[in-house]
Amino acid sequence: MTNRDFWRGFARNKGAVLGLLLLLAVMALAAFADILFPGDPWEMATAPFQPPLSGDALLGSDMLGRDIAAGIAHGARVSLVIGLISTAVALLIGVTLGAVAGFHGGWVDDAVMRFTELFQTIPNFVLAVVLVAIFTPSLTTIVIAIAVVSWPPLARLARAEFLSLRSREFVQAAVTTGQSNLTIILRQILPNSLSPIIVSASLMVATAILLESSLSFLGLGDPNAMSWGYMVGAARTMIRQAWWMSFFPGIAIVLTVLSLNLVGEGLNDALNPKLARSRG
Amino acid sequence: MKHRLAAIHRLVAGGLLATALALPAAALAVLSAAPALAQETPVRGGTMNIIVQPEPPLLVLGLNQQGPTQTVAGKIYQGLLTYDQKLNPMPSLAKSWTVSPDGLTYTFKLQENVKWHDGKPFTAKDVVFTTSKFLVETHPRGRAVFSRCSSITALDDQTVEFKLKEPFPAFIQAFEVSSAPMMPAHIYEGTDYRANPANATPIGTGPFKFKEWVKGSYIHLVRNDDYFKPGQPYLDGIYFRVIPDGVSRALALESGQVQQTQYSDVEPFDVPRLRQLPHLEMTTKGYEFVAPMSWLEINHRVKPLDDKRFRKAIAHAIDRTFIRDKIWFGLGRVPTGPINSVVKFHDPKVTVYEHSPDKAKQLLDEMGLKPGADGTRATVKVMPMPYGETWSRLGEYLKQALGKVGVKVVLESTDAGGWSQRVANWDYEITTNFLYQYGDPALGVARTYISDNIRKGVMFSNTMGYSNPKVDELFAGAAREIDPAKRQEMYSEVQRILTDEVPVVWLLEMEFPTFIDKRVKNANTTAIGVNDTYDDVYMTAK
Amino acid sequence: MLGLAQLFAGRLVKAAAILITIVVLNFLLVHAAPGDPAMVMAGEAGAADEQFVAQLRAQFGLDRPLTEQLATYVGKVVQGDLGYSYRQQRPVWDILWERLPATLLLTLTAFLLSLALGVLLGAFAAVQVGRWSDSAITVLALLAYATPIYWTGLMLSLLFAVELGWLPAFGYETIGAGYTGLDHALDVARHMVLPVVTLALFYMAAYARLTRASMLEVRGQDFVKTARAKGLGPLRIETRHVLRNAILPVITVAGIQAGQLVGGSILIETVFAWPGIGRLAFEAVLQRDYQVLLGIFLVTSVMVILFNILTDLLYGLIDPRIQVAR
C-alpha cells in the first residue's frame, strides 16, 4: 500500500480527520505547557475557589488556589506519556506471547491461551487497583499495572494472525530455506500482521488514558504528577462548592480519548480498506 | 519541703472537694461546664441518632479502643473518673478519692448500688480484676500505667487502693472510660478475654445497654432501667448510624436524620457550610482529653535533617496559618510547642517560628546549602499520612512551600499499613503525623521525645530518633514530681529546649468539629466529650 | 440436552481451575505488599508496644511461614471459608455476603439495560444508516465511549441531584426513613437510577456501535439477499434474519466485558456511595485488609464467570443451534 492510498483511506473518514486535528491540539498543549503556563502547575498561584474567567485563572482555581488551566496543560503530558508507554509495554507482552503461541501451536499455544484466559477472567480494573495499591503508586507501577491488564486482547489478535500466516507459502518457503524461527517471526510474519495490531494499539492508548485517570481518581496516581484523573478525584467532594474543578479536566479526558478513538477508526479504514468498505 | 507539703495539701484538698461535690455531682459538674443548659428541667424520653464512622470492629472497650468504639462503648461501660474541660477529675464510678501525701497511694470509694447490665453487683473486685489483670493484658496504654503499681487491693466492696512503685502524679488522669473501662470480673475472670463469647453482647455498668447491632447499618442501645443514678438516663435509647460516605453523613446531619457527628465525621470543607444551619450547634470543645497535636515528623538519622538549622528552616518556610485556614478550613490552633495549649503544663513562652521564607533561606545558607543551577538546595522525601484528602492536600502544600526556599520535595504515597510499617521501622525522611496527648505530658507527650522510647518497629514511639539527655532527665523528673509548681518548671524548661531544637515541626493543635442538634441538651460537656456516658442528656420536643 | 450438560460440566471444571490459580496468585500478590496488618491495627488502637503487636500477629496467624499460611488459606477456601478479617473482626464471607446483593443489583441491572438499549439503538442506527438519526446515535455512542464513567457519574449527580434535586445523589436507601415493602423498593429504585444509568451508558455505547457494525456486515451476506429475493418484508428481514445473526458477536463481547463491568463498579460505587463490594474493595486496599481483598478477588472472578455463563445462555436462547460454541 502506498502512502497516498493510506492517506486517501484515512481522509475518507471525516471523523478520523477531526480526531487527528484534536489529537494534534492535545499534543501541542502538552508540548507547549511550559510556555503557555510557565512554572509549576502545583503552584498556589491565586486565591482558592476562583470561578472560571476570573482575573488570573481562565478556568478557575482549586481549593488551594492552583490554576485549573495550568493543571490541564501539564496533565496532558502525564496522560499522553502514560498512555503511550503502557501501550508499548502491553504490545511487547501481548505480541510476544501471541506470536509464540501462534507460531508454535500445540501445547505452547494451549498453555499461553490458558494463561491469557486467566487474565481475562480477573476483572482487569480490580487487578490494576490492587497492583498499584500494593506496589505503591508511581509512574512506573501505574504503567506496569495498565500494561499487565491490557495485553490479553493483543495476544489473542497476534496469535490469530500468526496462526493464519504460518501456513502461508512465503512462510513455508522461509522455513525450507532454513531461516531461524526468530528471523521468520520478525522478518516474515510480524510485518504482515502489523496493520490490525496497529489499529488495536491506537485504541488501546485511549483505554490506557482512561485507566490511568480512573486510578488517579481513586487516589492511586503518582503524587508528584499533576494528572487529569487526580484533578477530578480531588474535586469530587467539592462539587457543590466548585463545579469547574471537576468539569474542565473531565472535558480534557473526553476530548483526548475521543480523538484517539476516531484516529483508531481512521487507521482501521486506511489499513484494512476491504473491511471498511464492507462496513458501508 | 514546705513548698512540697503545701502542694500535697492542695492535691488532697482537691480530692476532698471532689468528695464534697460527689452527691449532686453530675448536676453540679454540668452546671459549671454549661450553666445555660442546665437551667431547664430535663425531660424523659426520646431517642438520639448519632453517626458512628467507621463502624467499630467490636464494642468491648477493654479489648478495642479505636475512636468509634469509644463513642459507642462509652455509653455502655464506665471508668472510675471522668474529667471536666479543664481536665480536673470528676466522679464517675468512683464517688470520691484521696491521694496520700507521699503521692504513692490512691484510694477510690465506689458509688453504691451499681449493677452490671446482667444484674450482678459491681464491686471493688471488678476494679482490681480490670486494672491488675484484664487491661495489662489487652490495653497498651493501660499496661503502661498500671504496671507502675506495686499493688492493687480491694479494701472492702466499695474501696480500692492503688499503691505505686514511685510517685506518678499523672496517674489521676488515667481513669476515664477509654483509658480504664471497668470490665465485669464474673464474665471474664479465668477466660481467654478475646475469645469470650460474651464479647458479642457487651455487659457494662453504663446508662445504656446493648440491644442490637445490624452490621453495616446501626447499633442500637437502650435505656438501662437499673442505672445507679435515680431517674437517669433521660433518653430511651441511642441509635448509632453507620454511614461510610462523607457526603451522605453531611446530608444526614443537614436533614435532621442524625442529631450528632463528631471527630472526622464531617469533612473540614463541609464545616463552614454546616455551621450556618440554624438547627445545629457546632463546637470544638470536648476533645481536651485527646488533645491531638499534629506535626512534621523528621527522621534525624537522615542528612541534612539531623541539623537543627535545617529543621528550623522548614519551620520558617511553612505558613501554618495558611494550613489552618485553607487546608483545615479554619479548624485548629497554631501551636507554639510540643504541648497542646489545652493540656496541663503548656507554656507559651518559647521560641516561636513565624512564616518567613527569608529566614529559612538564611538558615540554609548558614548550613552551606547553596541553591544549585535549578534553585535546589536539598531534596527531601515527604510521605503524607494516608488518612484522607486533607493530609494529601497538606503534602501538596509542603511541596510548594519548601520548594520556595529551595528544598525540593518528592512526595511518596503509601497506604495505612505501609505507612505505619515504614515510620515504625525508621524507613522515611519526613512524614506527617498526629498523636493524642491524654491530658498530661507524662502520658501523651514525653513518649515522643524521650530516648528510652526509641524502639524500632513500634509505632507512636520516638521514631525520629531524637535524643537529648537533658530532655530525658526533665521528662523523667516531671513524671515523678508531685509538686505541680515544680512540675511546671520542668515542663517549661523542656518546652524551651524542644522548641529550640525542633525535633519535629509542630503544625497544628487539631480541632474536631462536633455538630449537635439544638434540641439535644447537656451533650458533650466533659473533656472526653462525645465519649462520655450521656446519662444526663435529654431532648426537647421542638 | 446432554450437550448442554456436558458444556456446563466442562465450564465448571475450567472455572474451578481458573479460580484455584487466582487464589494462589492473589495470595502471593498481597503478601508482596509492604504493609504489616498487625501494625495497622495497633496503630488504630492509639498505641503500640511490641507485646501488643506480637499478640495480634499470633492471633491472626501472621507469624506462621508463608507456605503454611497459603496452605491454610487454600484449604479453607475449598471448604467455603474465605477467612477472617482481622480488621473488621468478622468472617470475610459475612462481610462480602452483606455487600454482594447491592453490587449484583447494580451491575446486573446495568448489564441488562446496556445490552437492551445498546442493541436497540445500534439496530435502529443500522436500519436508518446514513440518516441524521444514525449520525446522532453514532456521535452519542462515540462520546459516551470516550467519557470516564466516574466523571459521567459526577456530572449527572451535579445536574440531577445537586442542581435539579430530582434524584438522590448517593446511597442505597434513605437513611433512617424506615420504609418497608413497596415504599422501600421504590426508595431503592430512586437511588439506583443515577449509578445504573452511569454504568450502563458507557457499555451501551460499546454495544450500540458493535450492533450497528455487525448488522451492516450481516446485511450484505448471501442468506439475507436470498430472503429479500424471496420477497420477505423489510421488518421481518431486519429482525428475524439480520439482527438475530448480528447480535451473536455483540453477546460474545458482552460476556467478555462483564468483568470490566464489575471493575467499573469500584468507580461507580465510590462516586455514588453505593454500599457494594466495589467500595469494599477500595476500602480493603487502603486498610491492607488482606483477607477481605482475597475474598473480593475470588467473588468478582466468580461473578465474571457467572456473567459468562449468563451470556452463554442468552446465546443459546437466540440461536438454539449453537451450544458448544467457543
Give a written overview of the molecule.
The complex is a heterotrimer of chains A (280), B (542) and C (326). With 280 residues, chain A is mainly α. Chain A has helices at 3-12, 14-31, 33-36, 68-104, 106-121, 124-134, 139-166, 169-176, 181-192, 194-217, 228-235, 244-271, 273-278. Chain B has 17 helices and 20 strands. The radius of gyration of chain B is 24 Å and the shape is globular. In chain B, the strands form six sheets. In chain B, strands 15-14-16-13-17 form a five-stranded mixed beta sheet. The termini of chain B are far apart. Chain B folds into four domains: 1-33, no CATH class; 77-197, Alpha-Beta Complex (Dipeptide-binding Protein, domain 1), CATH 3.90.76.10; 206-287 and 512-539, 3-Layer(aba) Sandwich (D-Maltodextrin-Binding Protein, domain 2), CATH 3.40.190.10; 293-509, Dipeptide-binding Protein, Domain 3 (Dipeptide-binding Protein, domain 3), CATH 3.10.105. By secondary structure, chain C is mainly alpha-helical. Chain C folds into two domains: 2-78, no CATH class; 99-320, MetI-like fold (Orthogonal Bundle). Chains A and C meet through helix 5, helix 6, helix 10, helix 11 and helix 12 of A and helix 1, helix 6, helix 7, helix 8 and helix 10 of C.
Concise structural overview:
Chain A has 280 residues and is mainly α. Chain A contains 13 helices and no strands. Chain C is globular.
What is the strand and helix layout of this fold?
The complex is a heterotrimer of chains A (280), B (542) and C (326).
Chain A: H1 3-12, H2 14-31, H3 33-36, H4 68-104, H5 106-121, H6 124-134, H7 139-166, H8 169-176, H9 181-192, H10 194-217, H11 228-235, H12 244-271, H13 273-278
Helix pairs in contact in A: 1-12, 2-4, 2-12, 4-5, 4-7, 4-10, 4-12, 5-7, 6-7, 7-10, 8-9, 10-11, 10-12, 11-12
Chain B: H1 2-21, H2 25-33, E1 47-52, H3 67-73, E2 81-83, E3 89-91, E4 94-99, E5 105-110, H4 124-138, H5 140-146, E6 149-156, E7 159-164, H6 185-188, E8 208-214, E9 218-223, E10 237-242, H7 246-254, E11 260-261, H8 271-274, E12 280-283, E13 293-298, H9 308-317, H10 320-327, H11 357-366, E14 378-383, H12 389-404, E15 407-411, H13 416-424, E16 430-435, H14 441-444, H15 446-449, H16 469-480, H17 484-501, E17 504-509, E18 514-517, E19 520-521, E20 538-539
Chain C: H1 2-31, H2 37-44, H3 50-59, H4 66-78, E1 84-85, E2 90-91, H5 92-127, H6 132-146, H7 149-163, H8 181-219, H9 222-229, H10 234-271, H11 277-287, H12 290-318
Antiparallel strand pairs in C: 1-2
Helix pairs in contact in C: 1-4, 1-12, 2-3, 5-6, 5-8, 5-10, 5-12, 6-8, 7-8, 7-10, 8-10, 9-10, 10-11, 10-12, 11-12
